[in-house]
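Hi all, a correction to my earlier message: I attached the wrong file for Polymerase nucleotidyl transferase domain-containing protein. Here's the right sequence:
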Amino acid sequence: MTALDNKDNKLEKSILETVAYFDIFSYPLTLVEIWKWLFLKEANGLFISLNKIEEIIKNSEAIKTLLEYKQGFYFFKNREALIALRKERYNLAENKFRKALRVAGFLKWIPGIKMIGICNSLSWANADTGSDIDFFIVTEKGKLWTSRFLAVGFLKIFGLRPEKNNTKDKICLSFFVDEEHLNLENLAIESPDIYLIYWINQLVPIFDRGGVHQKFLESNQWIKIFLPNIFNNEGSERRRVAEDFIFVGRKEKTAAGGLAEKFLHKLQYQILPKKIKEVANQNSNVVVKDGILKFHCDNDRRKKYQEKWFSKIKELERCL
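and the right structure:
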């Protein structure tokens, strides 16, 4: 039984579901994180106050039974070791961010690149030692393949691309979109695509020319259906590459630029691995379309995470 009124039962369940999702990644949450990342299906922009979350945690018998609170973190019973792991991974993230910033400092000069974002586990400082560094890159319209060619070429020359047995701190460029394809809702798996929802909210822009990150968030307002308390994650200035005096050039698409884009599109498509070509556009794991390049042939784990989360929710429901 719970000490809450019936109207608050849904919030109690949402708090536990939120903690359960991050538990999949061995990540305990602070009170503020539970509040700002609260998953509330069909929230539709409804704002839930921090005080309300604190009140429910204080009064819920189910939460008292299932969760522990130590050193400012909430976690499931017998998971106290996650506190030390989170702190360790935060320190690892600092080093990885420094390396990411150095690389982004060069990539920002590539014609067409308008935004570079850190995504996946590193964006919320939860990457492990051997993990690579995932970049999400937004380009100008008509320069997607050109920007990718130059970026991948740069990484290849300097040995910065991940290899099968060598991924630590390498830069993974597996996701590009142009500025007219910022809405990622069509890439979602069956609802709720919880990983993509948090992925969008937690993306950290380390280079942003012309306010593209804000446009990206505005284009993905659909996630507010699930996350009522989210706010813009602009990151800190120390984790930003300065824009400097980058020569932008004319916005008009020149004939030479258009020919180069077509040539580099054809060239890069021809040398894509056969496995990627075979599965391209069959689902949202591998997408090769106008304005979108997404190459997650073997490492799109959204379905796996979703199933793990659903399983945890079923366990929780037996306790409520």
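Sorry for the mix-up. The chain has eleven helices and eight strands.
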